Amino acid sequence: MAALASPTASRTASPAAPVLPHNPGTPLDLDWVRATRVNPSATQRRAATLGTRRSVKKAWQAAWLLRAVTCIDLTTLAGDDTPGNVRRLCAKARQPIRRDLLDALGMGERPLTVGAVCVYHRRIPDALAALEGSGIPVAAVSAGFPAGLSPLSTRLAEIEASVDAGAREIDIVITREHVLCGRWQALYDEVRAMREACGPAHMKAILATGELGPLWHVAMASKVCMMAGADFIKTSTGKEPVNATLPVSLVMVRTIREYEARTGFKVGFKPAGGIRTAKEALNYLILMKEELGDAWLSNTLFRLGASSLLADIERQLSHHATGRYAARHHLPMG
Fold this sequence. Notes:
Largest sheet: 8 strands, parallel
CATH topology: TIM Barrel
Number of strands: 8
CATH superfamily: Aldolase class I
Radius of gyration: 19 Å
Helix content: 40-55%
Shape: globular
Order of helices and strands: HHHEHHEHEHEHHEHEHEHEH
Number of helices: 13
Number of domains: 1
Strand order of the largest sheet: 7-6-5-4-3-2-1-8
CATH class: Alpha Beta
Structural class: alpha/beta
Distance between the termini: 34 Å
């Protein structure tokens, strides 16, 4: 597998870093939705090869892991979040890898940050203050996160409030009932209304795939959300019993490929929930490269929603730089 380009594609690498336009969406095409077919066993077999058929070693592995860092939406979505927790998280977002490790890897002079910081609406002002001048966007979970069962008017008002508060990205949740009952027009109308409420902010549509049933439901919901104008489709809230998995992600990225072939527009992908190890991050990068190509290897089109992943990546980079694994207390969150 070819090496990645220099892992400096974070949004703070340059004031002129590319930002893709919003997905304009399309009218709902129910024929395309109903024509969806997924072979579960073939999907499982293909997903199982991602971490075994290819390997990334030594310097190439370090480069891939540094790229993974730039694609992380560093997240805290706990009920006991405080301004102090968020400031600490943002400090880590600004300097995700210890400076001495970056120097040892030959990256000391290059800017390296995560893709975004993701918080609840209430913590947006704290995150904005802590990230001031960094260029790192704040993403907010809105629209009745995580269940999405509050009235639509309330969810839309929450989205607008988050955008007004300064969030540049909004992670919305869909109503799972629409998918489970096959109400595709209702799902389209809901997501379209949320897209309009997001205004200038990029919208990531969370499908909560662990609650959607069979894989073809995931594919159908992905298509509807993209037609409704989602800039990203995202696997999970992180609160479901089952969150991001490689088979579900494979189904979603293939619908992204179909959507680009139909419309010419690239939609981003964000697996989230349960991604904790550097090896898992590498598997997702391999998935993006093999299924969608190099364009999806930057944070404009790929994010990893995670809270503990960064610690393991930093530990692996420490091993690469020094030949030994650092103790956890040598790799603080902030």
